[in-house]
Amino acid sequence: MRATLIYGAGDIRVEDVPDPVLHEPTDALVRVLRSCICGSDLWPYGSRPASEQGDRIGHEFLGVVEDTGADVSGLKAGDVVVAPFVWADNTCDFCREGLQTSCRHGGFWGANGVDGGQGEAVRVPQAQGTLVKLPVGEDSALLPSLLSLSDVFPTGHHCAVTAGVGPRTTVTVIGDGAVGLCAVLAAKRLGAEQIILMGRHQGRTDLGRDFGATDVVAERGEEGVAKVLELTGGDGTHAVLECVGLRPAIETAFAVARSGGTVSRVGAPQYPEVPMGFEEFRRNVTLTGGIAPARAYIEELLPDVLAGEVEPGRVFDTVIGLDEVPAGYRAMADRTALKVLIRP
Ligand SMILES: [Zn+2]
């Protein structure tokens, strides 16, 4: 079969790889219907040292179960399923606490002999705990939004939940990438009354307005902070959802947090230290967030997606085949694509 491998920064190749087979009785084989490229794939794409051997890549996919190991129950060949971006048994103590990203028997796609999602098929470890069955057919028009349950929608939701977003909350979302836009959607869904989206790509912030943003601030740095303060009577917002992961974004986040407010970050931090000092202490600002346990939220978010009440799949603005994946990475790195959907 064909699958995507990364050989180093800027070096993505689609190659023939061995067909996946069941290794463990807890495995399932899934034929991929849809996959996609994540903003976080751009970090290795930008900086991974070159290597002789490629590594499988991709952590968001949905597909059709083709075969299951002897210990997998509740799933059968033909089921359409979505996989969260971390696989997990969904039964250990961390999983029961809703922290499947810390599963004692789980791990990441594309690491330690586990397949990546950007290919024609995937061996899924801990399949019974990892996969969520979707009540749709292979040709459902909802597939893009259902695919977003793999990562970006639950990640935006995790950001909003950990920041305490609810009715009567004011919110600032930093970043107009797919996760930032999903954070807007999640904040709206949770009842936030004011949602200020900080982003400077108008096509994206227009989608953010459709998703529920009440205000858009295109300025960055001190100017951007001043704009948010102006929109909030000088106070900032209760919740700040930092969906970028770069130091200027987290600095802005603290500066626009209201006293007593919460900053949640779900952008994988590309800075070694959090700039949190006396000023944040004086104003009782809390920092929370982290890698999103997508698996914990899929069942909760799924009904709204199936009902069409939310359409997170609108973040996909480019659709490609598997052989075009290297171009898809370039397009996302160049910011000419917001998020790339792959039809293997
Ligand atoms: Zn677990």
Automatic annotation (TrEMBL):
The keyword Ligase does not apply. Keywords: Metal-binding, Zinc. Residues 178-303 form the Alcohol dehydrogenase-like C-terminal domain. Its cofactor is Zn(2+). Residues 25-135 form the Alcohol dehydrogenase-like N-terminal domain. This is Zinc-binding dehydrogenase. The lineage of its organism: Bacteria, Bacillati, Actinomycetota, Actinomycetes, Micromonosporales.
